Amino acid sequence: MLKKPTFSLVVIGALLLLVLAIGACAPAATPEPPPPPPTDVPPPPPPTATPAPDHSAFEAAVAGNAHNQYDIGHGPNTWCTRCHSPQNWDPEAVQGPGEGECFTCKFPHLEEMSVASGNPFVPEEEWVGMPCETCHVVDGNGYVTPGIAWLNPVSMDYVAVSNSTELCEKCHVTTTGNAFGSAVDHKVTLGGSAHLNYGGFLGEVPPPSYCADCHDPHTLAPPQCVDCHEDVTTSDTHMKGYNALMLDKLTCMACHDASGLDVGPPPDGEGGPWVTQETSVGRAGPTTEFVLSHSIVYTVACDRCHFEENTFELTVFTADGSVPAPPAED
User: What is the DSSP string of 224-274?
Assistant: First the structure.
């Protein structure tokens, strides 16, 4: 018979053998699968580019406006280009020199172009005109910065301007009589009581005050008076009741001009409504030309044209459109 200590050892040994036997019968542990091989991660997609602004409509309008029409009769030389094509201007250009030949230009009274050595001819293929960058800041990619500015053609730096009139007056100025021989007469005077009503305005819409209030800045086309004054064509009181009779014979400014211009049939001889015009004396003698007035008066003085012994034998009226009383008999 086994003694107690020996019996205990036998039991413990049997238990160990049992544990080992059970462990040997257990299924083998499944090994962890190896990590997948690394794959190339595609780069993130590039950001969507902001589409460039489409300036094509503005560029087409500017290319076709009056400022960009090449004409050998309108200053195709390095002196007149100061306004007509600033990037072709030569600050060293002068009038003449020479007797009678002041400018390189095709004057109406000459069969051939007049040539002045002080301001050489600029051919059409070199003519820059007045593109977008004349009045807008344009970067190297052709993007136009909102707002207006004037490109100084000498320094090629931009000069800030506060409104469209200040921009236009970089060229539309009158410099006759100065000491530098750069006399031009391009100033447009905005005047008259109808639009520049400094004491206020009638209704809710203020009158135009700057050039671009009336002129499209790209086509340069102005609106017609009736675009704003729509009731004029149907009014029974306009023109003292002669509306239907006179509207096709007179332009609005023929009566509402405040600058004292002459009024008469179109000077080109083609007929049509009477217009404002001016007669000047040049190399070819007196010349009468149509002038678009920018000075507008609201109240019309009929005796401006309908005075006694007027050139066109018009009916005589007083300023308010009344027929004057016959002179008293002695």
Answer: PHHHH-TTGGG-SSGGGGTHHHHTTTB-HHHHHB-S--EEES-TTSS--SB
Across the chain, the runs of DSSP E, i.e. the strands, are: 149-151, 158-160, 262-264, 275-282, 285-290
The amino acid sitting at 1 is M
Low-confidence ranges of the chain (pLDDT < 70): 1-29, 98-100, 176-183, 196-203, 283-284, 330
Structure tokens at 37: 């091989």
| Residue 281 phi, psi dihedral angles, 5° rounding | -110, 120
Q: What is the pTM of this model?
A: 0.72
CA torsion, points 150, 151, 157, 163, in degrees to nearest 10?
10
- For position 181, what pLDDT does the model report? 53
d(CA 103, CA 94): 9
Q: Which two tokens stand for residue 143?
A: 């993007």
CA 75 to each of CA 81, 94, 121: distance values in angstroms, whole numbers, following the listed order: 7, 13, 9
Domain ranges across the chain? 65-169, 188-325
Q: How far apart are CA 280 and CA 88, in angstroms?
A: 29
DSSP structure class, residue 183 = -
CA 320/CA 243 separation, integer angstroms:
15
Phi, then psi, of 228 in degrees rounded to 5: -100, -40
Tokens 């006759």 identify what position?
176
List beta partners, residue 286. Answer: 281
In residues, how long is the chain?
A: 330
Q: Is 285 helix (H, G, I), strand (E, B) or coil?
A: strand
Count of Cβ atoms closer than 10 Å to residue 73 Cβ:
11
Q: Which amino acid is at 314?
A: L
The DSSP letter of residue 314 is: P
> Which spans in the chain are helix H?
4-25, 56-63, 81-84, 164-168, 211-214, 225-228, 243-246, 252-256
Return d(Cα 273, Cα 146) in angstroms, integer.
40
Q: Closest Cα partner for 105 from 68, 79, 127? A: 79
- Edge-to-edge strands of the sheet including 262-264? 262-264, 275-282, 285-290
